[in-house]
Amino acid sequence: MPDYIIAVDQGTTSSRAILYDRQLCPQASCSEELPLSYPHTGWVEQDPEAIWQSVLNCIRQLLQQSGIQAKQVAALALTNQRETTLLWDKKTGETLYPAIVWQDRRTADLCQALKQKHEASIRAKTGLLADPYFSATKLQWLLEQVPDARQRAESGELCFGTIDSFLLWRLTGGNVHATEASNASRTLLFNIHQQQWDPELLKLFAIPPAVLPQVHDSAGDFGSCSAELFGHPIPIVSILGDQQAALLGQACVEPGMLKSTYGTGCFAMVNTGAKALHSKHQLLTTVAWRIKGVPSYALEGSIFMAGATVQWLRDKLGIIQQASDTEALANGVGYQQSELLIPAFTGLGAPYWQPKVQAALFGLSRNSGKAEICAAALRSVAYQTQDLLLAMAHDGISIADIRVDGGMTVNQWFLQALADLTQHSISQSKISDATAFGTAFLAAWQLGWFSTLGAIQPLWQRAAQFTPQISPEQQSICYQHWSSAIGRLLAEPSRD
Prior knowledge:
- Strand 16 and strand 17 form a beta hairpin.
- The chain contains 15 helices and 22 strands.
- The protein is globular.
- The longest helix has 25 residues.
- The chain is an alpha/beta fold.
- Helices cover 35% and strands 22% of the residues.
- A 7-stranded mixed sheet has the order 16-17-15-14-20-21-22. Strands 3-2-1-5-13 form a 5-stranded mixed sheet, with helices on both faces. Strands 4-7 form a two-stranded antiparallel sheet.
């Protein structure tokens, strides 16, 4: 009897595969870094073949490293960077253009033109805003800019997909062109209330229905991996967008429970259950997961630069050699520091939604050095998290505890700053790969290894808890400094 699940987490800067046993204890893992390219200001792209090859490599290395054969694997579970958009040939599987990454801002002008006339109806149907973050305008750009793409799309020769669809298509040898509800809900084309592609939105964005994948439940039969890939056909039984997978992986299965993931970006998500709450403060309403045809919803705040800001310190400034260096470097830099970083390298996400705003570093002095800039970079993520929590509070959502995961959460200095600057209790999970764990659990539930989604709650354990060490008055002074700098930045005229 197959006793293992392989969870594949295809992220923005790396792909990872983790092998779990029946108790969902990780047995082995493999990962591979992925580059991003920036052909123009505000453009962010990836090589689809590199993404695909990295996933293949990780699964194959995992099997080899663990000594497990593919026939011993009961299921493959997928989770993925969301909104990243691809277009490929239905017969050959060849992509027509690089993957346009979720951070990409090239369609900012198009989105701005849509806002005044159409944003209310877009929001009512999708829970999202007219922003280049989402897939629809990326796909529209591809259809208009890639030679013959629109004609071929309308004749049924092309497939559109987010990363999950692309990987599913490749893994099944082109037999399955599908997505699931949590990923579909990030496209600006999916009606989250009717749970189907919306004809009016397709017309608004000029998207031919023929290119769209079928939308499945988050757990179910997604086909099987081609036998030639791993030596045996592995069933694919669960798919979730990465932030929704982390919500489940953090055992936030009850309404009101919140997790915040600090990967490339930061994504705070609160479970709202059967209710698709409409935010009055620029948060997103999204599908958390859909089980047996019934959707659960979440409210989300999206920050584009979290771990990516640490990468900037490493790759562009050379302040650190590796991400872990930030903890020791920032240690000792007090809250009285004058330096303040607004990391709007790809615009500002929630709750501002200003795609053309550019990053800025305020308050430099002769005393400003590597440590101060490092501390300002880490604190910028905490300040942005506070922006999201305030928006949630204004929407009537009361948060007692924040469950955190992602690469940045190994940094205890950052987690203390997060507790201080949000004035919230921060719970660090013992499960470091909450995203992979979430989709693995969903696969295990689908296989019948667990009877309910609530069975994940006893599996979650707190590794550490951080509580505020500064007074609310001191936090208020710090946050006012941040808010003032944001206000100055938003008041500047666009330089585009």
